[in-house]
Amino acid sequence: MIKLDQISLQRGSKFLLEKASVVFHPGQKIALIGANGSGKSSLFQLFLGKLTADEGSVAIPVQWRIAHMAQEVATSNRRALDFIIDGDHQLRGIEAAIDKAEREENHTLMASLHEKLDTIDGYNARVRAEQLMLGLGFKLDDRDKPANSFSGGWRIRLNLAQALMSPSDLLLLDEPTNHLDLDAELWLEQWLQRYQGSLLLISHDRDFIDSVCEGIVHIEHQTLNTYRGNYSAFERQRAEKLAQQQVNYEKQQRRKDEINDFVRRFRAKATKAKQAQSRLKELGRMEDIAPAHIDSPFNFSFPEPEKFSDPLLNLSHASLGYNQDPIVSHINLSIHPGSRIGLLGANGAGKSTLIKSLAKEIDLLSGEFTEGENLQLGYFSQHQLEALDLDASPMLHLQRLDAQAREQDIRNFLGGFNFHGDMAVGSIRHFSGGEKARLALAIVVWQKPNLLLLDEPTNHLDLEMCHALTMALQVFEGAVIIVSHDRHLLRNTVDQFLLIAGGKAQAYDGDLDDYSRWLISQRKQDAPASTPGSDSTGKTGKKEQRQQAAEIRKQLNPISNAIKKIEHKMEKTDKLLKDMEAELGDNDLYKANNNEKLQQLLRQQGHLKLEKNHDEERWFELTEKLESLQDELASQG
């Protein structure tokens, strides 16, 4: 196991950790969370031996192999496939030894080394590396390209593939989803679920954490606080803790009222039953965890747009692409005030191309583009971080947009994005990626848009800022179009999806779980008809199908039984709550001499409601899993 005992870690004059202790057990998958600058990445450097603790001790088993995802952009000119295989240092060592033994014609040693190569599955290394490339969105044609010929984001993906290629007992991943699209993120999620070693993960993507991790370590007030369960469980536990602080009560109530109002507005306009059900379930859960974010340093909202046109934008018979080469054709799209659209589709299908076309960054290849008279566009993409003036302050960036704005109004506005004091008026040259992303978003918000185009807005943001952005988008009065790998953001801010696939853009009636299943089916269709070692008659494939079907049937009964047990339990809980509500309706209970009994009943009611919420979530998970297995079984005939 890994043990940190009374660790103190200081950077400059600032203590990141002070006498903090924690234990990580073998095989655990833990998310390390905390505000930007709290010390998450520094803790990784401590594990890698690149930093030394100022006090305390770090104990990691000496025999453990540690793999980590490099944050530096790869500059190697090695072939992409070779660069990934380089992650397996033991394999490369054996290969070098084999080359030497061949030159020396040491046949005895060569036989021994080939046996070692077989033991570590070295003969399949190329296939494993190719699978990693495909899973992370590369094409097989990319295998022979030099690593340094890819753009920055794709080179980070190569770093991730190299880390996954490395056999490890401990895997350290720092924001692995930052440069992934939703398809690649879902693939990585499944890969990590199968990973057998210990995983420490830094991520701002709550759905990703929920799916992969079983524990949370929260860096707060220079200490390490452990929580059992995933990020959703952490929010509930922290919400319960903070809800007990009376000083936050009124702020909590205001936040709950905002969420309730949004739920009511959404319920009134929801048109797609399945998406509505998924969305309302998620929003209801957000109300319960709202207190967990009461002490967030971020608190902003989009100003109400001054004017609207209807439609705001319209594409008619449009073809989009580059150099007269269409990527998406025959698009007819009208964007109206209140439209909330999430773009789905595989990497390279044309999601960002559509966003750039709507933002008029690239011209249509053909078709008509009609812009509303009162359109006020707010466009956010990663390249806008690069367009920031590094020598200017956050305040100066906004003053350039509105020379008449009062300095105090700008300071108050920037405070909502956690730019206070010197940070608001000093140069941004030394800002982190997350701070630059916050400033770029602040610039968009300041301009009072009535149409937001957001291309991966949560990259580089921490969990609290992602939550604040989600809350702000929920009460935004204008139209929103989003490309994002952040499923939590999509579930809580859009009410319709547009699927970009096969050169077309079409309305998608399912929810994100349906989309995940659709992706899996697409991968199966795109898989090669035969693989090395398979029986040409198809007998092996049929045998495997029968075995898979039998395995699926084995899983169905336990899940069905578990669903029945939860339904029975929820019925009992509903009866208890109904009886309790009747008891709470007794006016005598509110007399002074019954205060203790009243408080006890209210506590019991709170616990039962929380328990019911947990059971409902579990019921939804199991029901979705059962349906997925039944669909998979049916697809196998």
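Next protein, fold it too.
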Amino acid sequence: MATALPTALLVVLLTLGAVVAVLAAGAGRPARAAEDVRTEDARIASGSGADAVELDTTLYLPASATAEDPAPAVLLAHGFGGSKQSVADDARDLAGRGYVVLAWSARGFGASTGQIGLDDPRYEVADVSTLLDRLAERDDVLLDGPGDPRAGVAGASYGGALSLLAAAYDQRVDAIAPQITWNSLTTALFPDDQGILEDAGTPAPTPRTDDAGVFKRLWAGLFFGMGSAPSGQAPTGDGPPAGNGAPGEQAGGPAGADPSSADPSSVDPSSVDQAAVAQALTCGRFRPEICAAYQDAASTGTLTPEVAAVLERSSPAGVLDRITAPTLLIQGTQDSLFGLGEADANARGIAATGTPVQVVWYDGGHDAGASDRVTADLRDQVAGWFDAHLRNGTVDPVGFRYPAPTGLGGGVGRVQGGSRVVEADEYPGLDGDPVARLGVALDGGTQPVVTPAGGSPAALTTVPGLGGIGAALSGGTLEVPGQFAAFASPELDEAVEVVGAPQVRIAVSSPTGEATLFAKLYDVGPDGTTTLPAGLVSPLALSDVSTDPATPTEVAVTLPGIVHRFEAGHTMRVVVSSTDQGYALPADAAVYTVGLADGAELAVPEVAGEVQATAGTARWWVLLGVVVALGLLGWLVAVLWGRRRRRADTPAADGEDVPLRFTGVTKAYKDGFVAVRDLSFEVRRGQVLGLLGPNGAGKTTSLRMLMGLIRPTEGRIEVFGHDAGPGAPVLSRLGSFVEGTGLQPHLSGRDNLTLYWAATGRPVADAHMDEAIEVAGLGAALDKPVRSYSQGMRQRVAIAQAMLGLPDLLVLDEPTNGLDPPQIHAMRDVLRSYAATGRTVIVSSHLLAEIEQTCSHVVVMAKGRKIVQGTVEEIVGTGGSVLIGLADDADAERAAEVLAGLAGAGPVERTDEGLVVDLGPTSRAAALTALVQAGVAVDQLTPRRRLEDAFLSLVGES
């Protein structure tokens, strides 16, 4: 038996080695170069005259890039509201793969000067050409010709559009990888999804806005708000939560460089043009023409030719035919700002000229940050694309990837599952073979739809940066009764996986001949639960519709592009509403009629492909076999290790006298954070120990380790002499209340206590329920539902729960939270009385006065370490400075003489409160006796320093 454990461990290690080999073989990716990356910061001048700026740049240089062996380069652009710091991790990743990477803060952002031109070809795009010139001057960058570096451009959102435009305007760009970006800012901010692109044939074609559309008010306001912040108040992300900025970064140039960089609080009204100040406050860092366009759109909610001209100048849509650089388009399925249709339009426009295009959809976007796994996979995709086109590597034959909707417990509005992807050889429709569409029958008569005056109240479906608001509403969005028409399919006989933008035809009439509507596709479960995939809607700006409900106008509608699996037994429900909180709405009230067009059905796109495991993994059945084998081996090791631990867990000889002992305990996390470091202390029977420390000191982490909820990284925790690891039998002698009450709100206080004790499996008689209920002191409220309790009442029930069974060691974290002063006083008596029975109490609290009055001993922590341990008297000071109040001021002289004569006493100070003296080694009791014997009437004798003073001093010193 002595060799069984090592043998089992050896088998496990060998099996793990096999797993690593399988995973490596399945990855199919070259190993990332393990080399040092150094950086060079520089400010690069770009532009001329009034448009001249200085760009703040950082160059990431791999050790492998030399004059003898130059490397391709990648320009890395950031998202709106970010800076070069936002892409630092991506830059280091690419540099670690052997690329020379240049990251920079766009004009108007970070430490770069100038004003935001919104990816204007005259400004931001011209800046890219300047940076390419700079790269061409380096001998460690590979050149295709004089002044022509081998270079790719990548970026997300604002940076993604910049990469597209740069490739269109500068033919030196050799490959691009734009992410979650736009095709047309006009279509993105003024969408109008009426119409069906019959000839597109792609999964997510979105109608392009011409001269009308519904203003995306919330997103546009957030977008403009980011850029209009004064210098020093720059926002920190490209729309929440996909943040691309760094907190505290300065935006714009030095003060005085332009009106947008002025600090309004420092403006001298007598010396500054008031119009310029107003411009700075209103427009921030935007160029004036962009500011004017936004103000026009925000005030009117309409798309004017002037506004369209500004937006289209910054849109790749009009120059896609110029792009010859192979393009990897990455778009998120959780994105109400730039939906899948934007990438679809870019793919069609670029591929039309024969340029290679690959399309990747992923589970994330402006409304939901990607997981670490997905982020790593996207980095691999981008690097692989550049490897293929900048290093003449093998071109990835996969033309389209999207997250596989598995239907396994996906969250509200999220792609279900998401741990796998589907791969297809081509993005459907680019090669002339259109995407397949399944017809789904719909039913529902013509229905009146009210639009309220001023558009309020409005339906609530999507909040910028938060995606489907249904996640906060337990699966449902907020549709206002009377403001929508609904059309449902029969229950599905089999699951349907929708990959792209469904289409439907409706019939509409309006008394004014115009209507603003919002179409969306819900997933309705058998129990009536509704889910709006990704929280997406399709706005419709209708004009010239029939005013006669008897002869409505037929309208073709393209619904949002989604990736969603409708399970068998579910129904598809098309909802057409008159309002949506995220958009500009008509001011006048009206009643529309909405119905289905004759013979209309829902056409949903389906894309065939091969389901792949998570990037870098082997076939699922191989992994399953390995996991099963590991599980069996793990079980064997656990059994053997448990036997060994039981043999080794001989209790310490003084275990019953020392209920708790920490010995060299450290808790470190994988990210390097150390919550507790080398903590050692012990608690004796009958003590009430106070665990003190500021927020982040490691108190709660220490208690959680004590309770066996988490394991220490190093060291040992003993409870009554036994190891206190997770599941240790000795923990049954511990009662605890840490981090929340955990009570069931629908049950009464009594039922909560009964249920908790029943879960322990111990006899009811051992619970001492009556004693615990007496501690709670709830009276008749004990039999009322907990949801009706105040916070203080919940706290008392939780403490009574911790005392069930009268545990020998009681651990309480902030037990007086929510209690009023009388209840706190009563709690103090309870804890002292509890310890007086020979049991031990540990209390963690921020209320230092309560610790001083309740506890006999104290451990003070700061930054995960123990600062000091001792009795309250020792911490405050056994002798030390005391304040002596006299009953008669005439005794002051005689009292001072007595105190000065005490051995080791310091000088006596007279104050308005009384006499203050440092007693040194003399105890307060001895000093009091000496005064009384000298005939001095003492009114009070108290420590000059309270526990709070001692605590602040100790923590400050640490």
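About the second fold: Residues 620-648 form the longest helix (29 residues).
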